[in-house]
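User: My notes are a mess, but here's the protein and flavin-adenine dinucleotide's SMILES. Can you give me a structure?
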Amino acid sequence: MADADAVIVGAGLAGLVAAMELADRGKRVVLLDQEPEQSLGGQAFWSLGGLFMIDTPEQRRMGIRDSAALALADWMGSAQFDRPEDHWPRRWAEAYVEFAAGEMRGWLRGMGLRWFPVVGWAERGGGYADGHGNSVPRFHLTWGTGPGVIAPFVARVREHAKAGRITLSFRHRVDRILTRAGAAIGVAGARLAPDDMARGAPSNREVVGDFEVYAASVIITSGGIGGNFDLVRKAWPRDRLGPAPRRMVAGVPAHVDGRMIAISEAAGGHVINGDRMWHYTEGLQNWDPIWPNHGIRILPGPSSLWLDANGRRLPAPCLPGFDTLGTLREILSTGHDYSWFVLSQKVIEKEFALSGSEQNPDLTSAKWREVIRARLLSGKGAPAPVEAFKAKGADFVVAKTIEDLVADMNRLAGGNRLDASTIRAMVEARDAQTDNPFTKDAQIMAILAARNYRGDRLIRTAKPHRFLDPANGPLIAVRLNILTRKTLGGLQTDLNGQMIGANGAPVPGLFAAGEVAGFGGGGYHGYNALEGTFLGGCLFGGHRIGQSDAVA
Ligand SMILES: Cc1cc2nc3c(=O)[nH]c(=O)nc-3n(C[C@H](O)[C@H](O)[C@H](O)COP(=O)(O)OP(=O)(O)OC[C@H]3O[C@@H](n4cnc5c(N)ncnc54)[C@H](O)[C@@H]3O)c2cc1C
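Assistant: No problem, the inputs look usable. Here's the predicted complex:
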């Protein structure tokens, strides 16, 4: 006798949405997670809450004209699908674009979500009209950031739990998917000892018992591999990006361990596009870490000068905020696993944002009063979390002259690779172009283009200015580490979220959604992401599974 209609492995965003929707339809659901209750919501809690949506009132109010056709063209130019196994990923991408231009905003608004009025322009791309990148701003920052995204789903799941439709079981680590005659019939695993660690910190793995849960449908929503550097290195696409970095920082908690992927394969699931991944090049070592080797990503505006480890300027379009993987390839081609931003105080004040709910307490509070106080009334200086990194972060160097700055950069990195006179000449040449309304410098052109957008001019892009003018100082350099984050490939699924085995046939009773399914189909981003599509894919994937008659 089954314990439930569906058992869901992983109480992150995808699992919460699927559980809620199934229970809304009267299904009985068991929702399991290896972490304790305080980590409910998984990675989404820590996220910035940016969502990729298309042709919204927020965009229109900012003067942005978007459409499903333009977004689909951008998506396909970025994804560059080129493999036979891209069949389901491509169909998921098309379905998501339709959703993001259609019912998505109304559905989320009905759940209580709201968005910051200035739409962000993330991942501007590789410089070609038909290639990678967002033609227009589409990054909708949710009021309350990540906690604001999960809150309504957590509340509804708890209501269902109270009514007995959902059983929430924390500290249940799934080690096996139970099958009979090729069909999934349940899961088995270890019960882990309680742990009162802080949310997001690693929890103990002490086994205190075991368990089995039987259900008509088994749904895997266990997240990606970004917290498991061994898996990241094993899957690393050397041919496209060069050798895996020796040193990386972790952009995700330790529970993003990828264990369920092999467990799902053992039950008939099939991973595709495992070599496609999304790691950032602007990682900082967190001076106040929550999880091991905790890295924080800078979401940069376009003005910082970007140098490789040898002090050479990265070629356009490897500009801040443009082409994540193109820039990663360029950085790794030097044989080093870090790069540098060189900037002025004026740039850090206007352009540095840090990804993560805890790094944006004002937006996370969802109170205008806090946002105005933190961003407009704080007097001189960048927002407090950015200033804290500048003062305490291991990767920051601050100096009055370029010679002192370069000396400190050399001290930080070791090896005396940087030459102060070469860098001075480079910055002087760059500075001279800021007074030139024509300009031949591609980065200054990009800054001017960014400032054509009201949102960027208002809060994201500093007026072009001379870095070497002391009035704009002090000078700042930031060592940027490679930060692991997202898994673009994953378990192959059809449009119901049902796993498709290596033989191309559906695996009876077995489903996947969210990051473990490559956000849809086994990798709906293809090779490149447009940002906001990760949370978006978890919402969409959970929603589809929850509504599918194929489940339970
Ligand atoms: C700092 C940060 C900022 C981000 N910002 C954004 C953003 O602005 N926009 C955007 O689109 N995306 C963003 N993302 C990415 C996005 O948050 C994630 O991709 C998404 O939340 C993944 O959700 P998920 O439900 O698939 O998996 P997860 O959130 O990883 O949840 C999976 C759950 O499964 C559990 N689990 C795993 N294995 C087992 C097992 N064997 N047994 C039992 N339980 C198991 C885990 O404990 C976990 O709770 C950000 C991520 C981070 C970390």
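The longest strand covers residues 207-220.
User: Great, I'll file this with my notes.
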